[in-house]
Amino acid sequence: MSASFIPKSVSALSAAAIAGLRAALPPDRIYFEAADCLPYAYDNSRRVSLPQAVAFPMDENEVVALVRACRQFRIALTPRGRGTNTTGATVPVEGGVVVSMERMNRILSLSPGDRLIECEAGCTNSDVQRAAAAHGLFWAPDPTSADFASVGGNIACGAGGPRAVKYGTARENVLGLNAVLGTGELIRSGCHTTKGVVGYDLTRLLVGSEGTLGLITRATLKLLPRPAGLRTLRVAYRDVSSAIQAVTRIMGQPAAPCALEFFDTDAVALAQAWRDCGIPADTGALLLIDVDGDGAGLEADTIAISNAARGDGLVELRSAASRAESEDLWAARKALSPSLRKLAPRKINEDVAVPITRLPELVSGLGALSREHGLRIVSFGHAGNGNLHVNILADPSDPAQAGAIEACLHAMFRLVLSLDGTLSGEHGVGIDKRDFVAWEVAAPALAVMRQIKRVFDPEGILNPGKTLPDAAE
Amino acid sequence: MSASFIPKSVSALSAAAIAGLRAALPPDRIYFEAADCLPYAYDNSRRVSLPQAVAFPMDENEVVALVRACRQFRIALTPRGRGTNTTGATVPVEGGVVVSMERMNRILSLSPGDRLIECEAGCTNSDVQRAAAAHGLFWAPDPTSADFASVGGNIACGAGGPRAVKYGTARENVLGLNAVLGTGELIRSGCHTTKGVVGYDLTRLLVGSEGTLGLITRATLKLLPRPAGLRTLRVAYRDVSSAIQAVTRIMGQPAAPCALEFFDTDAVALAQAWRDCGIPADTGALLLIDVDGDGAGLEADTIAISNAARGDGLVELRSAASRAESEDLWAARKALSPSLRKLAPRKINEDVAVPITRLPELVSGLGALSREHGLRIVSFGHAGNGNLHVNILADPSDPAQAGAIEACLHAMFRLVLSLDGTLSGEHGVGIDKRDFVAWEVAAPALAVMRQIKRVFDPEGILNPGKTLPDAAE
Fold first, then answer.
1. Which CATH number fits domain B344-428: 3.40.50.970, 3.30.70.2740, 3.30.70.100, 3.40.710.10?
2. What is the pLDDT of residues B231-240, one digit of tens each?
3. What CATH number belongs to A107-225?
4. Regions in chain A scoring below 50 on pLDDT
5. Which of residues 25 through 54 in chain A touch B, CB cutoff 8 A?
6. Nearest residue on chain A to B300, judged by CA atoms?
7. What's the complex ipTM?
8. In the UniProt record, does the keyword Flavoprotein occur (chains A, B) (predicted)?
């Protein structure tokens, strides 16, 4: 959309650089052919930029050797889990080497009594969930992409998901990390305990840094006991304001839902159009609520949350009695993202967050922006965190719509910031939101972030063109 | 104990420096007389080092002016909340100016619907708890010193407390911070939402940095709904191992206790000696458990946790039916720290943490160290986090005991690290553990921490002599 979204010139690797890379890794760990590189040229942002090489390290020593070679020859390195991110964070805009972590996918240790798992960064989220589930445990982050997304990618992006409202995001559920910095140094941060205050918190600094500070190689994850029971409530309200009032009541009492998802009026219509879900006709907004727990505790929490959900503007409260019925209620939510693509060829999917009491202003403001710019906007998502997936829909072949997208997006970001919100609750910055970071983060903090970047990556070889905006010329 | 524990030469301020400081603050905000400075020369570590001045800024602008003056004249600044820390973190070992935040004690905003409070750093923990309680909310950190300790100090030390086992420490309960860096720049980090991934996580970097990276001026805190009900269980076991097995069972099921405190054999005897608490004679270890919740949910959680507490080695499970009875059971726990002082004139109070399953090895290892070094060691504390308060007791007038302290402490730290533990779960490093940081944090990570320190504080004026060890000569 703006100049910095266009990759800088991608120059070919010199013969010396290629020789250096070949010396760093065994031949079956690095490929230079365009045909081999192409699958690593894009991610779920649908941006494309071809790397000159793709590497598949098998262990930390190989990552160190690779980074050292790249440092010596000033080659850009783009770490990549499974490329499920939506912001372009793993697109190699300056070419160089994509470092795919997919072969570093071992579970290194699992201690159920300590609720700890240690794994390599290339494990998928679901690899970890499966290993943990065998001991009645789980890892909190549950992005929609959990079946494919890697743990390293989840951590690098600060991934959340619906469950974050009760159990927190990657930030609150990682205890320690191993990472290779842009200097080629391997560091170990954090500890094996849920409390620890020795030295500065490098773990949280790496969480959400999108591979710009270090290449995460291993993680020690905090696991939680998995409740046996689940209840799903689907609560229909007359309008958005009534639904948000209910969110405030639910979050204001001690029984925490493990998901609290909001659908605006358009999202309700979309879900109902996708398949008749039996949503009452006069529904203007919907909450989809999961409550987890065991036995009598689950019953008590479900009653407490149901009571909090009831109030002015309630149209219907349905409770799913079985897992199958729960999954049925959730199917509409999971179908929303793909359904949107059918409405318009272009979907700009943002994940802004505002304090919960500002959600009505956000949703009404989005309505005003939709009318003003002639673009449909559909919002749904993690209301318990004030974190909405705002989808601006457009047909780029319509010049009026195509021309309106940028202004609408900018106005939406300004609206969010005016409501004390943040531009990204869980997707991160990547390329997409890079030009807007300075709208949220004031110059002194941004200057500190740039200096931290230089500490971790003095040559600027780690994932260039991401996360932080370029310094003003 | 070692050379670095002795303050470097504290030189008097030059006339120009005094003039610079006087120009930065109104006259009733800075004092230079030794009599005025003396109350700010020490903290709960009982170390003493006289500053040349003590400042009482009233707002952020005054903090900025003060830091800029100190930077210009290279004067050390030691930020101070209420001096309740036990590690010497607020003792001005290089003299200079102690910056007492006690006059910056305003609650700036409270939004119950958003579960947010914004306050100045000098508010006490209990100021925040009182304001939050009026809306049925609370802030998770609950150090024993909560009535006096400041929010800024809690954050700077990464404070926890018994409740951390369910609700987390300062790290998980601060959303954003304002801080003045050693450059004199005021930065704002974080956001007003429970999720946010724009830019690097400067908030968590400041949490636990003990005033060495920035002077925290304001905080946005995450509040939680306060459950109305509380049940306390006191569970006696035959021996330490049985008690720790019970901790593992309790932490392995989904109903989370809001406190899970452990007493070793000596701590049990001490509690019983302080006052007859009716602890059965054959008790070798004790758990004190709080469960919070509302109505039927609380009943269900109490049953689940009681069931998990029962098992091999159980001697007695007592349940307090009323708040008064709960407070009675807790009185023994709260009396432990002061009681220890009666046992021996010198008490070295450490707060190491190990993975829960390693607690039996820690406790038996401490027994071996006690015998080997001829020093009594009493341990109790936050077993749900594997975080024990290990108290090495000695009479310094006995040369054998005095001579054994250092070797015993060192051996204890080596034991903790061999068990995958950390040297501090919540007290922090300050002066006391500075020489041991490099035992836990390997050189590459330590080098990064030192470089981060230079980014935030290029002249090294912020709380010198704390947190990070001096670089090797």
1. 3.30.70.2740
2. 999 999 999 9
3. 3.30.465.10
4. 1-9, 473
5. none
6. A297
7. 0.96
8. yes
